[in-house]
Amino acid sequence: xxxxxxxxxxxxxxxxxxxxxxFIDPMLNDLGLLRTDYSIAYLIAGLVGGALLxxxxxxLDKVGARILLPTLGLLLGLACLWMSSIGTLVGLSVGFTLIxxxxxxxxxxxxxWLVGEWxxxxxxxxxxxxxxGGAASVMTIPQLNDWLIDEYGWRMAWWGLAAIVWVGLVLPxxxxxxxxxxxxxxxxxxxxxxxxxxxxxxxxxxxxxADSPELDLTxxxxxxxxxxxxxxxVWCTTSMVGTGLIFHQVSLLxxxxxxxxxxxxxxxxxxxxxxxxGVLAGFLTDMGFERFLLAASMLFLSVAIGLMLWMPDPLWxxxxxxxxxxxxxxxRTAGTAVWINYYGRTSQGAIRGVAMAAAVxxxxxxxxxxxxxxxxxxxYSVSLIVFGALPxxxxxxxxxxxxxx
Length: 405
Description:
Elements: H1 2-10, H2 17-20, H3 24-31, H4 35-63, H5 65-85, H6 89-118, H7 123-152, H8 154-176, H9 219-223, H10 226-247, H11 249-254, H12 260-286, H13 290-309, H14 317-343, H15 348-365, H16 367-377, H17 381-398
Helix pairs in contact: 1-6, 1-7, 4-5, 4-6, 4-15, 4-16, 5-6, 5-8, 6-7, 6-15, 7-8, 7-12, 7-14, 10-13, 10-14, 10-15, 10-16, 10-17, 12-14, 13-14, 13-17
């Protein structure tokens, strides 16, 4: 289950901003669109995709990932084929809606839902491992996209992504996914129901690791708690600000004399740093430090934006990438596990569906302020100043977001 969840995170790439970033300039040049037009299409996709995600979360709680994950993989491949055929702004808006709501939203939700069902005491560490799939995706997919675009054009590059998703996700999910451990006679964290492996006289894990009671809240109960909105503020800030920065990373770094190829390579460095920070955040999440980790991630994001504003030398782009990697690793681990840790398993799909809906809408809004700032003033400075303040506010708020347990 851990391997399939990790694979799902890796293959959600076609709907993620770091993958789309490689397509922006080639598609703008070919379709004759402004950067603002492209960002508006992204905004429309986020609004529609955000409206769909709460329903997907409810469906996930009802039917499980065994049915939903391979279905989503099939649909994501079809969405990539649509992206390869577009020729208008309307077609682009439809395509973005499909890849964002399926890839960035539903596939990610289903993959992490599976971890929430199969892990409890080691949930943070498991989320850290699953985050490695996302990190590996950031390290490899933008470079793969860039190579495919250079060799075969951006339309065939979308065909390549469709093939990768179909081969890598659909069949493994069909064969291997099981929704929950209990129907198989197992407990969470890979333990046998009697804490003993058949054929062994000694327990594999001590009885002290038996399942402890978990608080299970409904969506209605969760959203009435202040902690929900404080956690949501971190998610939405990360989605809006982080997506805007990644979406325009090539152009943003070009203002500091960083070449396109180097800007895409820095996405890989961000993922590499995020790999280490994600695993460490997993250990600390299992110790109950989620809110402190989330506050730290907001600080890293704000400092990174300050560095993007006042970068004294192109080499400082390495520091920028490192800070973004630290922030991303924490969010992929602590930012995902905290919802289940705080509000339980029973309605985790529905609760996180609501949270992801807000985050997807926020992500859709992220590229537009930067695009407007560039198209109207020839500079990103005004938007970056506003972006730099938002994480500080969210970070202060989440420090007081205590678990309702």
